[in-house]
Amino acid sequence: MIEKLKNPFRYLPLRQALCWGIAALILISVFCWQTGLRMTSLTQINYAGGALWKATLQQIVVWLFFSVVLYVAGLLLSRSKPRFWDVAAYNLFARIPFSLSLLIYTIPTVRSVMGLAMDGNIARMMEHMNLLTIVGVVSLLFVVWYFYWSYKAFAEATNLKNTKGVVTFVVCFVITYVSSAFLLNLI
Fold it and tell me: Average per-residue pLDDT in the chain?
């Protein structure tokens, strides 16, 4: 059971990964729309809000853009022949921990304290240091989980592992993180 949680991509059929990923993408899009969250890059959000179609398009753009970058890297560096849908489906499933991390914004106090940060009211935000510490630790755990699963998904789909796989994944992540901010700004 622990092995399946550490690397579900070894055991998860492609179709099932895609279905779970699509379900999570739809749910998090509705959640972002309802809470006024907006994707500003691959792993950043703010309170700019927007229509449901924009929230959904933002989720799709970051997922597909990251998938394309990972796929191209896999084509260039892997000795095997990676398939786009393997990379895309596993990458979508690997986004589930990131989507789960956003659920912390269902807590009204968290929303209001994070709203203070968005407004630039740092002094008032610092009054809630205990809450910020808890949110920071929980967010860090989910981010580590997301990065770990994303790498495992990439490694399984492209057969790029160890140092070569990790370095390739990190470079792809940085490229996507920076570029996605410009792409999402257009939406």
Answer: 90
